[in-house]
Design brief:
Largest sheet: 5 strands, antiparallel
Order of helices and strands: EEEHEEHEE
Structural class: alpha+beta
Low-confidence stretches: 83-90
Strand content: 25-35%
Distance between the termini: 26 Å
Mean pLDDT: 88
Number of domains: 1
Number of helices: 2
Length: about 90
C-alpha cells in the first residue's frame, strides 16, 4: 500500500510524495525527492538507526522510506488505507 510522506530538505524546502512500491516510478510528487531517491538506488541503507541494512530498490517501500528519513527531515509518514499516521520530529 502506498505511503504518503511529507518532509523538508536541509534548505527548508517542503515536499510531499507518495511511495508507490513500483520499481519503475517508486516516488511520485516531488521531482526533487524522486531525484534524491534515484541518487541512492542500489546503495545499502539501514532501515532504522540500528539496522538491518537493505539494498535500496524502487519496489521496496521500506528502503525508499529509509532514504527519505536519512537524507531529509520527514515530518509525517502515512500509509494509505490504514488511517495510521506516524509523525517524526528531529
Amino acid at each position: 500500500m502506498p505511503h504518503t510522506v511529507t518532509g523538508r530538505f536541509d534548505d527548508g524546502s517542503a515536499y510531499q510524495v507518495q511511495i508507490t512500491g513500483d520499481a519503475v516510478r517508486p516516488v511520485v510528487g516531488s521531482t526533487r525527492a524522486a531525484a534524491l531517491f534515484e541518487l541512492h538506488l542500489g546503495e545499502s541503507i539501514p532501515l532504522s538507526p540500528t539496522g538491518p541494512l537493505r539494498t535500496v530498490a524502487g519496489n521496496d517501500e521500506e528502503a525508499v522510506l529509509a532514504v527519505l528519513h536519512r537524507y531529509s527531515n520527514v515530518l509525517e509518514s502515512r500509509r494509505s488505507g490504514h488511517g495510521r499516521t506516524a509523525q517524526v520530529t528531529a
